[in-house]
Amino acid sequence: MRPRIAFAGAHATGRMKETPETKIEILRGDITKLTVNAIVNAANTTLLGGGGVDGAIHRTAGPELLAECRILGGCRPGEAKMTRGYRLPAGFVIHTVGPIWRGGKHNEAHVLADCYRNSLKLAVENEIKTIAFPAISCGAYGYPIEDAAQIAFKTTRDFLAANDEIQKVIFAVWGQDVYEAYQRLL
After folding, report:
1. For 46-75, how does the pLDDT look when each residue is reduced to its tens digit (9 = 90+)?
2. How far apart are CA 162 and CA 83, in angstroms?
3. How many domains does the chain have?
4. What is the CATH number of the domain that holds 120?
5. Does residue 17 fall inside a structural domain?
6. Helix (H) / strand (E) containing 28
7. Contact criterion met (CB below 8 Å) for 135 and 91
8. Is 6 within the bounds of a domain?
9. What DSSP string runs through 76-141?
10. Dihedral through CA 55, CA 88, CA 66, CA 96, nearest 10?
């Protein structure tokens, strides 16, 4: 009889067990073009569209997204709400409202972490396996990029370490400076 050989962390299929780090990817590009189960919208409190990624998502998804957002009653900072993706390649949009940077002494870090945590919780509740995030609050809301990237990674890694339902998290960022800040943390 030949001994059975097992490798630490290997599944029966022979694949290595995924860690939070292997489930995270960084991409410099347009989040509205990604074929994932859900993309996250860095929305404003009305959920009725705006500038930056919010405006791009609304324009690409079409007027049906705005119509669905109207019935949601807005969203408070740190919360997350979900709609269909309509004309987007992603089937769903998870809307979250990041904090406006006011010097870091107004609970901004906690609210930003809640954006990621609550979006990931909503994804799991709706059996979403692949999700893409923009750099929440790093545009018009003025959050320092390095600090926001650290919060995004820590919150996401912690969540993925405790929940194995999500298979892939993509941070889809636009500017080179944001991409480099995220890349340093990967």
Report:
1. 999 999 999 999 999 999 999 999 999 999
2. 25
3. 1
4. 3.40.220.10
5. no
6. strand 24-28
7. no
8. no
9. -BT-EEEEE-TTSSSSEEEEEEPPPPSSS-SSHHHHHHHHHHHHHHHHHHTT--EEEE--TTSSTT
10. -70
